[in-house]
Every structure is written in structure tokens, then in C-alpha cells.
Predict the 3D structure of the following.
Amino acid sequence: MILIVEDDVLLAQTLKTFLTSQNMSCVVASDGEEALSKIAEYTITGMIVDMMMPKMDGISLLSAITHLHPKPFIIMSTALGSLEDKAKAFEMGADDYLVKPYHFKELGYRIQALLKRTNKDQRHQLVFNHSFLDEQQLLCIVHDQTIVLSKKEFQVLFHLLKHPQTIFTRNQLLDLIWGESSLSYDRTVDTHIKSIREKVKSPDFEIVTIRGLGYKGVLL
């Protein structure tokens, strides 16, 4: 879902019509405050944000969503074209910047490029209602709180959740996470599972012990 944050009603609706014609799902907000409510309501992949808006401007909006995981891509769409304005937007997390007026087709090309990058990144991410895991950053977040896991703990958790309902024996996990040449033992897996359970309390998933077999990740 693409969120268009634009106080010019005609431009916002024209943008929505164009992006819909490009097979993109869109929702519109007229200012930063309304945008925050849309972000809470929808799963937003990307945002087109005007810089100058009432109630909450574009820069303030970017500042308010720095905690989001995964973070939607952000294209600033504004009449402000100075280097200083661009620098401020990029410093606050913008991924691209378009100075009005611009050709809608150019916007479409930029969105497609950012979507490709986003889809590539998401292969290494697991997104749940209240939890987020990023394999490349070894990042585990539950209820907006970062959970500190060791590299092996994270890898065990990520692998089990990436293949929910699949039972993995201790030996399989040892081979997958520690490597076939590892001198680790079954008890190593049990110790890591215990530590994960103590650290990660998520309403979205749990690790279940299958007696006599091994472990599996279960989505709740």
C-alpha cells in the first residue's frame, strides 16, 4: 500500500488515480497527523510526502516514524528545491526527492525502483503484528522494544519462524546454524532455545518442543 500525504486535494486524487492505473494500491492523507492514523490502520510499503502541510509538516512526519520496522520507503514531493531542503529530508530518512512540478511517469519509475529494493530486503525480514525480525541486521523487535539476542540465538529463532510448523531435529538445527563440521552437541540447541524463550515474549509466535523429535516455530 502506497500512502500519499498531500494537502492539495486535487493533486492527491490525481496521484492516486495515476498510481492506481499502474496497479498500485493507494490511500491518501491530507497532513502528517492523518498520515500517522493511516500508518496505524494499513500496512504501508511506501510514502509520497509533501514537505509543507498544516498540523504536521513532512519533516515532522519523518521524525515521527523513525521507529517503524520495517520502514516504508519515502519520496519527498515538494516545491522546495534548495540543497538545504533536500539535505534536511535525506538526513531525516527520505529515500528520494522530487521537486514539483514533475512528470507522473518519473514518479512511477522511482516508485518501481524502490519497490524492487524493498521486496529484495523483505526476503531477509519477518513481519508480524507486534514483532519484526531482520536477518541482515540480526534485529529482533517486539512491541517496539529491541531484544538483544546472540547471533546463534537469532539464527535459530529466525529459521524456525521462517518455516513455521516445520519440525527440525536438534541435529538439523546444529547442521543449519552451527555447520556440519561443528563440535557442538544436542544440548547446545536446547540451551539456545531456553535462552530465546526467556528473552523473547511475543504474542505473535512461540517455539514448541516436539517431544522425541525437536522444535518448531508456531505462529499465534
About this structure: The chain has a mean pLDDT of 88. The chain has two domains: 2-123, 126-219. The domain at 126-219 is CATH 1.10.10.10 (Arc Repressor Mutant, subunit A).
